[in-house]
């Protein structure tokens, strides 16, 4: 694996961004947040109605980094072994062999993750936090990089299980993906239907621009982005302010402060800088915080949502300026 300077890292990730924007209609902020998570070795939870390109984004990212992509459809009868793997008796030889599950990949798409029960969701906890899984009593490391892109539909609540707080806390970002503009939707429709019979965008023409080892080097370079004390203090002040915000039962934990700093580094690399700014923290705050706050029942009855609360916190916490 070759070392990579921050200048080289910025140039490389911008090539990946161009790669993704060539196939994803609009959604530039979503793409940047996913790339920032990749740079920070984090995971993302994406909310949006079906058909907005969540799986396409994961597939295109996998092609960009020449990595393996596995997709698991989470259902109420999904078992932990269906994700991490299991031991089986080999026919003929009577040997017990261990078969690795789809979690042994570079990008894992956990589709509709909140449709599986908590026991199955918990199978991902070790993988997401420690980058390893335990099979038959032995720990097995996962490939690097390892990125979980989980999706859930915010409309369909019947037949879903709330994600446990411990599971939510493993995600660096909770991203909301919205409908494309009319021009973007028109371009997407033309690209999918032009001389084609299928309903999915063909990615065969896309060539890899990085390797998995390059991505690991990118992550190591991102970790060297300068975060001055004033920027770190700003991130901590935002996380702490969520705990006293009106209508909030529980605010961001210290992991929220850490997430804000990590994400700010990723945003800095995307902007070709070797230092993080307060604006980087502010830009990524909604995605970092929205799954870490719990509103009171009264606040929800009054029509408040977490994004409104976060916007209020960002307004009242003064950002440091030169």
Characterization of this structure:
The protein is globular, with a radius of gyration of 20 Å. 43% of the residues lie in helices and 15% in strands. Strand 6 (132-135) and strand 7 form a beta hairpin. The chain is built from 14 helices and eleven strands. Helix 10 packs across helix 11. The model has no long low-confidence stretch (mean pLDDT 86). It has a domain at 27-178: 3-Layer(aba) Sandwich (Rossmann fold).
A few lines on this structure:
By secondary structure, the chain is α/β, with parallel strands linked by helices. The protein has helices at 6-21, 28-39, 54-64, 81-84, 118-121, 123-130, 165-168, 182-193, 212-222, 229-241, 254-270, 278-289, 297-301, 306-316, and strands at residues 44-47, 69-73, 85-89, 96-100, 107-111, 132-135, 138-141, 147-152, 173-176, 248-250, 294-295. The protein has a domain at 27-178: Rossmann fold.
Q: Please state the second-level CATH architecture of the domain at 27-178.
A: 3-Layer(aba) Sandwich
Average pLDDT, to the nearest integer?
86
Give Rg in angstroms: 20 Å
Global outline: globular
CATH third-tier fold name of the domain at 27-178: Rossmann fold
List the helices and strands and how they pair.
Elements: H1 6-21, H2 28-39, E1 44-47, H3 54-64, E2 69-73, H4 81-84, E3 85-89, E4 96-100, E5 107-111, H5 118-121, H6 123-130, E6 132-135, E7 138-141, E8 147-152, H7 165-168, E9 173-176, H8 182-193, H9 212-222, H10 229-241, E10 248-250, H11 254-270, H12 278-289, E11 294-295, H13 297-301, H14 306-316
Parallel strand pairs: 1-8, 1-9, 2-5, 5-8
Antiparallel strand pairs: 3-4, 6-7, 10-11
Helix pairs in contact: 1-2, 1-9, 2-11, 10-11, 10-12, 11-12, 12-14
């Amino acid at each position: 694996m070759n070392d990579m300077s921050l200048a080289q890292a910025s140039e490389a990730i911008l090539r990946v961004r161009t790669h993704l924007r060539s196939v994803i209609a609009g959604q530039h902020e979503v793409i940047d947040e996913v790339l920032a998570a990749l740079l920070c070795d984090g995971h993302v939870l994406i909310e949006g109605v079906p058909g907005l390109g969540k799986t396409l984004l994961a597939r295109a990212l996998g092609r960009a980094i020449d990595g393996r992509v596995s997709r698991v459809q989470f259902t109420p009868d999904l078992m932990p072994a269906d994700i991490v793997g299991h031991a089986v008796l080999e026919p003929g030889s009577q040997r017990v062999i261990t078969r690795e599950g789809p979690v042994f990949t570079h990008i894992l798409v956990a589709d509709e993750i909140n449709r599986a029960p908590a026991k199955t969701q918990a199978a991902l906890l070790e993988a997401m936090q420690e980058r390893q899984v335990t099979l038959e009593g032995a720990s097995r490391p996962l490939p690097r990089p390892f990125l979980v892109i989980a999706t859930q539909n915010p409309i369909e609540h019947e037949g879903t299980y709330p994600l446990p707080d411990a599971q939510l806390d493993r995600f660096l970002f909770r991203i909301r993906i919205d409908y494309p503009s009319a021009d973007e939707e028109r371009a997407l429709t033309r690209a999918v239907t032009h001389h084609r019979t299928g309903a999915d965008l063909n990615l065969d023409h896309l060539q890899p621009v990085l390797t998995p080892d390059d991505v690991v080097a990118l992550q190591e370079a991102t970790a060297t982005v300068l975060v001055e004390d004033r920027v770190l203090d700003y991130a901590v002040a935002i996380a702490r302010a969520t705990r006293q915000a009106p209508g909030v039962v529980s605010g961001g934990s210290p992991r929220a402060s850490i997430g804000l700093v990590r994400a700010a580094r990723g945003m800095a690399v995307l902007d070709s800088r070797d230092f993080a700014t307060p604006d980087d923290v502010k830009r990524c705050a909604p995605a970092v915080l929205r799954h870490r706050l719990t509103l009171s029942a009264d606040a929800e009855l009054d029509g408040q949502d977490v994004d409104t609360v976060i916007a209020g916190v960002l307004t009242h916490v003064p950002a440091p300026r030169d």
